[in-house]
Specification:
Layout (H helix, E strand, L loop, with lengths): L28 H14 L12 H12 L14 E2 L9 E12 L5 E11 L4 E2 L1 H12 L2 E2 L1 H16 L3 E10 H4 L10 E8 H4 L1 H11 L11
Parallel strand pairs: 2-5
Antiparallel strand pairs: 1-4, 2-3, 3-6, 6-7
Helix pairs in contact: 1-2, 3-4
């Protein structure tokens, strides 16, 4: 991938509640645990044996953590901004935000790092809020292209900066532990908006700050 030119990951806008089931549609905890028991039986196991008797409860509890992003609104984390910046209008960059997500095709882990930047227009946001934004969208069933776009679009929509850049590099276990079995393969996606899309110099400065992922080797997750 040539990250010297802008890459459009997806045209989808960030819609935090779009994938969330309503109260009437959501199964009960007991029904979720029964589904896990059914899968254990399907693979040839006995869900009542000692080692597995508590597994359905553990799996459902783990799912609550893995997919907690469905109960959160990414935009809310960026609502509180600060205007006392002494006129600062240069790039704000947050690198190497590690995340864990799950692919929506096989529900297997996607482990990677997100790099974000924006050019403020009068207002800035706390950097921890940017990291939380990544977590909200990562803790849903995802494809990497959509995750990249959701993060960038939300920053753009809420902060209204002069430009936003997001680069994500991740390893997908649906590719490394099954199917084609290619451990070490890393996928890189980017979303460039505003000045990062229209100004090659600004884009190059950002990529230089994060270390152009297209030239990296041995990505450590």
């Amino acid at each position: 991938m040539d990250l010297k030119t802008p890459t459009l990951a997806t045209s989808a806008r960030a819609e935090p509640r779009q994938d969330r089931a309503g109260p009437a549609d959501r199964p009960s905890r007991e029904e979720a645990e029964a589904a896990v028991r059914l899968l254990l039986r399907w693979i040839g196991e006995d869900p009542d044996r000692e080692g597995l008797s508590e597994t359905p409860k553990r799996v459902v509890k783990a799912y609550e953590e893995h997919f907690s992003g469905y109960s959160q609104d990414g935009e809310e984390f960026l609502r509180r901004t600060f205007s006392e910046t002494e006129g600062y209008d240069e790039m704000v960059v947050l690198r190497d935000v590690r995340f864990e997500s799950h692919c929506e095709h096989h529900i297997l882990p996607v482990i990677g790092r997100a790099h974000m930047a924006y050019l403020p227009d009068k207002r800035v946001v706390g950097i921890s809020k940017l990291a939380r934004l990544v977590e909200v969208y990562a803790r849903r069933l995802q494809i990497q292209e959509k995750l990249t776009a959701q993060i960038a679009n939300t920053i753009q929509d809420v902060l209204q900066p002069k430009g936003v850049a997001v680069v994500i590099e991740a390893a997908h276990q649906c590719m490394t532990t099954r199917g084609i079995h290619k451990p070490g393969a890393t996928m890189v996606t980017s979303r460039m908006l505003g000045a990062f899309r229209s100004d090659p110099a600004t884009r190059r400065e950002f990529l230089g700050m994060i270390g152009d992922p297209a030239s990296k080797h041995g990505f450590d997750v």
